[in-house]
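Weekly modeling sync, notes
Attendees: S.R. (lead), two postdocs, one rotation student

Agenda item 3: backlog of single-chain predictions. S.R. asked that every request posted to the team notebook include the full sequence so nobody has to chase files. The rotation student volunteered to paste the first one in as an example of the format we agreed on. Action items at the bottom.

Example entry:
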Amino acid sequence: MPIKLKPLKKTIETETINTSRVGEIVEGKIVAQERSAVYLDLGIRGIGVIYGNEFYKSQNILKPLKIGDNVLAKITNLEDENGYRELSIMAASKEVVWKELKNLKEKNEIIEIKITKTNRGGLISEIKGVSAFLPLSQLSPEHYPKIESDDRIKIMAVLQKFINQTFKVKIIDLDSKKERLILSEKAIMPGKTLKKEKGEEKKEEKKYQIGDIVEGKITGITSFGAFVGIEEGCEGLLYPSEISEKKEAKPEEILKLGQKVKAKIIKIADNQIYLSLKI
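Predicted structure, as returned to the notebook:
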């Protein structure tokens, strides 16, 4: 039985002023709470409710809140059977975080991260609750595993030492829909070596051009793609859409570590080479 709150009255005034839409992020004040629902006062937008699955998914956020607190939520339904707007705090929180991450990338901000895990392709951290990946190819020379061969076991042993260490990085690629966040340590190389880096960059640009066909080995496989070792310290990134024509196919189902591949360079940006197996 829902709490008896006054839903939005449909008048000419509110219909004119109120331009709410599904997907909109709104701010509301908590005006009532019950065992499995929270109600927000959205001003001229009426009363919003967080209940059902959305309520249970948001327990960590809702638990410390009390009546009178303001929160951000996303409109998921303009009007339920009781005349309330259905809301999602989780969806709003996620959207806000990805906007903040996009802003950090656009501003070219340096971020300090703590390494939490490793995999065969690099290091894993978390930024604002989002899993972030720092590939081997984007490690600075100081941290890049100095292994003569491409022995993945030895490389993993070196990477394990970085767990709980802090790194300074920049975001070089993100996709909120695919929850992909890629970092680079190389992108913040000290300014005193900038001149040298620019020279190396020009040399690298001459060496690799968009449209070139390169050969390499699969050095890492993740949920968002795979990495191809082109030469020592240089890897290219393959997104799932560039691995197979089958949209549902997962990288790990098609590729294997150490597998030799031929790929086409389709993009070079932010010290990262992007590849495609669709030659």
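Discussion: group reviewed the output briefly. The CA atoms of residues 142 and 179 lie 29 Å apart.
Action items: rotation student to repeat for the remaining queue; S.R. to check formatting next week.
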